Amino acid sequence: MIALKITNIKHFMSRLLGSGDFDSFLLEEASISTYNTFHIDGHQNKDFYTAEEWEDETIRPYEFSAWQTIRPICFDLIKGTHTPAAFRFVLHLMPKHAEAILSKGDTTVTLQQLKAFVLNVKYDGTDLTLVTGTAFHTFLMDKTPDVLWDQAVRQFLSQKGISYEEL
Is the pTM of this model over 0.70? Predict the structure, then answer.
């Protein structure tokens, strides 16, 4: 787990909300405080779908909604003449991208043991920080996936021209 302070918030926000750069993520939850505080639960709602749609992985491939689907809603809540008071996003890397990260290291951890590579995005009105995390279905001694995820996030940010400082 690493904590990174974003040094150019405006550029980061344009990448997060105004481009497809983060579309390889799913949204677990969001909280956006502007003139009201809005909470978004990224879990897909079973009651919305028919039984057939709920089971169809082409319609609903993940437990959480894709960031690219929720991104315009978050953008609409944040845009305006005032800076948000605060926001927080909990993003999960889509499982189809996780295997590539695991394959870059010497680890016995399998994709089936990994629950999620997580990226927490938090703005407190002044500073924007990213905190990485790794969730497993059970306790594992091997911390290699944590290191691989931290490296992947640093590389991703550098590729997107997003500047940061390690905390």
Answer: yes
